[in-house]
Amino acid sequence: MADLDDIKDGKDWGHDRPADTTRFFLKGAAHHDWGMKARLARIFRPDTGRTVMLAFDHGYFQGPTTGLERLDLTIAPLAPHADVLMCTRGGLRSSIPPESGKPVVLRCSAGNSILTELSNELVAVDIDDAIRLGAVAMAAQVYIGAEYEHKSIANVVKLIDSGTRYGIPTMAVTGVGKDMVRDARYFGLATRIAAEIGAQFVKSYYVDEGFEKITLGCPVPIVIAGGKKLPEAEALEIAYRAIDQGAAGVDMGRNVFQSSDPVAMLKALAAVVHDGRTGAEAYQLFRDEHRKAAA
Ligand code: 5RP
């Protein structure tokens, strides 16, 4: 029989300490459930609200592009220096040690190649496998204005619906078809559509004119892709301007793994994203790190 003699009345009710009613640190995420928020908090650092993601999913349509010939040799050693890894399940299982302990945003679409129509994708990972891999988010492209716009939106909607069932966020990637104009109007449209269909965060590109309108018009966090390889100083300046105009981080690939010093580049990006350093300051840090590593 349960011992009822020793039950004492509670004493410490914290009268002077009201319950925390501030809801969540991340834009647009205050009303999500606990698991969804917990995963978002593994992607975006709660102390800064931002993230440095390393994208190396390119092989799913580009094959072994420069810097990704051997994921085990070039990417696995970078894992400690990024906040999050973004990759395919094949790249992850074959080449990244689970002991790396890094949160993974899983590329969950496929179905095209550089030889065919880019927008013609399908959902290529079952939710069960995303859960099995411990993914903190799933990702797929929306190709707004492209031939297979409708299908690409349906893919992302499917991920959002299955992810919401299990508390897994979806990152919609604003894929740009070959004939699309890369301007603020286009990305404003694409990012807003992605957020309105329910993506918990969105990946887009930085544009020189009007980027702030894109971040303001998108009710969830935006992370930027890096695009084609640029000189390090330029890539860091773009990251700085994007953050300064409201981006919540970067999800960069080629500008990291094709850099002369990918580790120094990740450290420099972290300085911009988390420490508020300018592009020029971060480039100096890149050079210092590079010199140290070469010594
Ligand atoms: C491709 C992607 C890539 O992950 C993305 O383009 C990031 O890489 P990069 O910085 O090299 O542009 O989503 O569809």
Automatic annotation (TrEMBL):
<dbReference type="Pfam" id="PF01791">
    <property type="entry name" value="DeoC"/>
</dbReference>
<keyword id="KW-0456">Lyase</keyword>
<dbReference type="InterPro" id="IPR002915">
    <property type="entry name" value="DeoC/FbaB/LacD_aldolase"/>
</dbReference>
<dbReference type="InterPro" id="IPR050456">
    <property type="entry name" value="DeoC/FbaB_aldolase"/>
</dbReference>
<dbReference type="InterPro" id="IPR013785">
    <property type="entry name" value="Aldolase_TIM"/>
</dbReference>
<dbReference type="GO" id="GO:0004332">
    <property type="term" value="F:fructose-bisphosphate aldolase activity"/>
</dbReference>
<dbReference type="InterPro" id="IPR041720">
    <property type="entry name" value="FbaB-like"/>
</dbReference>
<protein>
    <submittedName>
        <fullName>Putative autoinducer-2 (AI-2) aldolase</fullName>
        <ecNumber>4.1.2.-</ecNumber>
    </submittedName>
</protein>
